[in-house]
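Q: Convert this sequence to structure tokens.
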Amino acid sequence: MEAWQPAADFATLRLRAELLARIRRFFAARGVLEVETPALSAAAITDPHLISFAVHPDGPGSRHPLYLHTSPEFPMKRLLAAGSGCIYQIARVFRDDEWGRLHNPEFTLLEWYRVGFDHHRLMDEVAELTSILLAGRVALAVPERLSYGAAFQRYLGLDPHRATVAELASCAQRQAVSIPPGMPATETDPWLDLLLTHCIESHLGKGRLTFLHDYPASQAALARLQSGDPPVGERFELYLNGIELANGFHELGDAHEQRRRFEAENAARRARGQPEMPIDEQMLAALAAGLPDCAGVALGFDRLLMLAAGRPSLAEVLAFPFDRA
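A:
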């Protein structure tokens, strides 16, 4: 096949179009409004695990630099605070340094927000939509919900909320996990991520949708905290056949707490030698004005299509993946 030709066959591209049509029918039937927001922003994601593409426009009145969004979340929350009600978006998003079997630097993200939902109610809707999209192509048993703590107990026999770095490192060695250089001696989250990705994820979602929920408070990201011993983030991720498909939150509405988290992420960037990213002041202003109680989720559409089409890699469901762009 010559490089100018599409990587995906036309049967797969027709399936892509059909699944997108099903998504729009699903939300239209529930009165959820489709919206579009800018792909470029003066602010960028502060999460140290994500790298934004920077754009340097030269036109009159241009701002330097602008960033291609990694998710439409921040402007969608501005719409929610302005009174939009429940909304969804099918967006092209961009993440630098992500390319492989399950990654492409440009991909399609389905993101939606449901006013009045918590993360448990949103899991119900995610399961319903995902089942509709996979119907007739992937056989699914009854969905499973598994807390983050229960998953670590089940597959590794440890409590992720209380384990020390030494205990996590010892577990990684017992599991013969290759430990990357520079792993921290005082921070548990990188060790938890290492064990999750290398020892647990492959077990999740075997023949069923598995929702991993109630993450450590330190990994709450943009989710509310649920009080308890220990407190946990009201966050979930969806897995099918070991592949992460979605990340959802009972959304944090506290502007001061969200600013603190952004600043902590920038501090983590400095510690890793990464550049600090400009914080989205517009989104923080929207939170301060009043975000309605809501839950939101981002679902990787291309990965879902890959599973529906029975393809082994993301490149096979994209017309023109990164190496053919």
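The mean pLDDT is 96.
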